[in-house]
Prior knowledge:
Layout: E1 11-15, H1 20-34, E2 39-44, E3 59-62, H2 73-97, E4 101-104, H3 110-119, E5 124-128, H4 135-140, E6 146-149, E7 163-165, H5 172-175, E8 191-196, H6 203-214, H7 218-221, E9 224-229, H8 235-242, E10 248-252, H9 258-264, E11 267-270, H10 274-283, E12 287-289, H11 299-309, E13 313-315, H12 323-335, H13 338-350, H14 355-367, H15 381-390
Parallel strand pairs: 1-2, 1-4, 2-3, 4-5, 5-6, 6-7, 8-9, 8-11, 9-10, 11-12, 12-13
Amino acid sequence: MTPTPSPDAPLIVLAAGGTGGHVFPAEALAQELLGQDYRLALVTDSRGERYGGTLGLIDKHSISASALAGHSIFGKAISAVRLSVGLVQAYRLLKRLKPAVVVGFGGYAAAPTVAAAILARVPTIIHEQNAILGWANRKLADMVTKVCISFDLARPAPEKAQLIRTGMPVRPAVAAVRATPYHAPSITGEFRILVLGGSQGARVFSDVIPAAIKLLPEEFRHRLEISQQCRPEEIDRTMAAYEGLGVHVELRHFFDNVPELLAKAHVLIARAGASTVGEVTVAGRPSLLAPYPFAADDHQTANAKTLTTAGGGWMMPQDHFTAAALAEQLLEFSQQPHLLADAAAAAQAFSIPDAAGRMAAVVAGVVHGKNGVRAGRSVSASSVSATVTSLNNTNPLERKITRGAA
Length: 406
């Protein structure tokens, strides 16, 4: 049972929303902090009511927030209004709650909340999940107290940013996979492939993977066990593509037993979101990553490169992710299983399994004034306001717009 914090325990406000990449690390840090003498609250958007787990146990507060609009004048105006309203709401909320620290994890509600904390002179920490600072985090990085990063950054951070590599906090069930040793497939035994495509699946995997399997020798095909995430509308046609290939395949829109599947997998085929890279490395499993090419700032490619540079996996850009190329790579894995074993060891060595604990230590250091960082950084209201306003003025050359099929 989680101990009940004392009424006068420091309050830590977490700001997060949106995709699992933002919510999972917030969840992991919340679980870590609840084991210590801290009170917690979550600032999120209207979707926060659906959060379960540890985040479902703490006080939640919603503010006005939405995706940053596109480049139309009307869209920018709407986005500016929502950001401004969210900023005011967050400022009033923080003045009432009087937190010791605000920790931002990204998502629509995080930027206004972190900006409000800076204005209110509340110490602030932001966590960047990807190997490239997101647009909002780039704007805020040199104003906050500390910036926790998951990977070494592929692009320089603002000069005054106080960077600490804490790693990517992952779900405890996934972290537990690390204790299960990786065993490479034998030359004649089962070969288990886990395919994950992010929160919505990835259409390209439904197109390419069955076609690649069809090109493999019959003997190898009969050894395959594939668990593949698909979009709901893709399941029937993907299953039809596997028919007659002699492959044991399980297709689902959502797997609720990912840790179990990851523990058994000989290789993961997936996108290169921060959560995926964090989880597969902490688990110590080899992966073949096909980054989503339209991710903002192409951050998935940067994530994948951090892992492949460390020898923990392979990257296949989407324009090279063809049936022939994938079949060739899988055949090489089957013939040289030591490649997978070596990658698994490298992935585990690259990972930071205690990322949540490291982040909790950063929070504690800020709360208790270690190294003189207890007070919020001195930043003028005009500079923060300008930063919030500039979130609507993204240079289209600096980011790719998420569009098209995954």
